[in-house]
Every structure is written in structure tokens, then in C-alpha cells.
Design brief:
By secondary structure, the protein is an alpha/beta fold. It has one domain: Vaccinia Virus protein VP39 (Rossmann fold, 3-Layer(aba) Sandwich). A 7-stranded mixed sheet has the order 3-2-1-4-5-7-6, sandwiched between helices. Strand 6 and strand 7 form a beta hairpin.
Length: 196
């Protein structure tokens, strides 16, 4: 945990970033992001999911790739600026629903067979991470998949590290989650779980 940042990052943090740069993390152009997205999609154990939930869809680059494997995909973000770009990118796709939502303050009512938490968990404080885990588990069908992907280097602004986020989900195993796959790159970590 970061002693310099004990609160979850607010929507205003992201709106400021997106107002200054429409692609602040270079999702559209970075080789790192392209390789990570390929690894994310390759980690999915099923070819098709009935109902998927993406927390923190940003400008929709990964959303567009993920939807190819989903009958229905709900993508949420806290930033309207980011989500407007995602909607524009994916406007030709009918299986994606977009919603402004700040997890864990809000969470959808439906059940999912896939939940993706990619590059968003370290924006939560510890308390919000624990609340988010509870909602994720409650709304993930038995046998459903949870895929975590996070950058693992230090970021001064973030309340948690990528490793802290992933390690906290291992604490829920084996009673609630079964670990299916783990992968570590120089700069990111990927872990796939199945709901028990």
C-alpha cells in the first residue's frame, strides 16, 4: 500500500488526464499495450462468453478486442471523456453496452460468466478493493472466469501496486476461486481464476 495515497483515485483524476491527452497511456499505439492485449485475449479459456463485464474500459481498445468473444459485454468506466471515445470506437458493434460506473460504489445487478479487471485494481484503496472483490464474487457465476491484468512497476499516484491487487485475490482461493493460469512479463502480471 502506498502511504502517500490512501484513497481510491477519484473520477476527476482520470477526467484531467483524458482532457489533456485523449490516449494518456498510449493504448492505441504502444507495443507494450498491444502485446499485453494479445496475452489477455489468449488467456481466455473459452472461445465464447454469454455475459462479460469489463471494469475500467477506458477508450475501448481492449473492449473492441474482447467483444469478439462475448455475446454481451458491459464495459464501465468512471470517465465520460474516455467512454465517449470508446463508444465512438465501437459504435458499429451491437453486443457492447457502455455505462459510467464507479465500482465499488456501484455495481451491475446481473450475473456474469467473465469479469475482466485490467489496469484498474491499483486505483482502488484497500477498502474499495475488498468491497470490489465481494461484488465480483457475488456476480460471477459458478465456473465463471475472472481475469486480472495489471502493470507491476511503481506508480507514485496509485494507492496499491499490481502485485498487491493480484495477491489479494489469491487470499480468496481455494474456497471461492481456483487459480487456472499465471503469467508474469517484465512490466505486467496476468492471473486467471475460476469461480468455485
Amino acid at each position: 500500500m502506498n502511504p502517500l495515497q490512501s484513497n481510491s483515485l477519484p473520477p476527476s483524476y482520470f477526467d484531467k488526464l483524458y482532457s489533456e491527452n485523449p490516449d494518456p497511456w498510449k493504448f492505441e499505439t504502444s507495443v507494450y499495450e498491444a502485446n499485453k492485449y494479445a496475452a489477455t485475449i489468449a488467456a481466455l479459456p473459452k472461445e465464447r462468453y454469454r455475459s462479460a463485464f469489463e471494469i475500467g474500459g477506458s477508450i475501448g481498445v481492449l473492449t473492441e478486442k474482447l467483444q469478439e468473444h462475448c455475446d454481451s459485454l458491459l464495459s464501465v468506466d468512471v470517465s465520460k471523456l474516455a467512454q465517449d471515445r470508446a463508444k465512438e470506437r465501437c459504435q458499429h458493434l451491437s453486443n457492447i453496452k457502455f455505462q459510467i460506473m464507479r465500482v465499488p460504489e456501484q455495481y451491475p445487478d446481473e450475473m456474469f460468466d467473465l469479469t475482466l479487471v485490467s489496469e484498474v485494481g491499483y486505483y482502488w484503496c484497500w477498502e474499495d478493493l475488498k468491497k470490489s472483490q465481494q461484488y465480483i464474487l457475488e456476480h460471477l457465476e459458478p465456473g465463471g472466469h475472472l481475469l486480472l491484468v495489471h502493470w507491476t512497476l511503481y506508480a507514485r499516484d496509485y494507492p496499491l501496486s499490481g502485485d498487491e491487487v493480484h495477491d489479494s485475490f489469491f487470499e480468496l482461493a481455494p474456497n471461492k476461486l481456483r487459480h487456472l493460469k499465471g503469467q508474469r512479463d517484465e512490466e505486467y502480471r496476468l492471473d486467471l481464476f475460476e469461480r468455485v
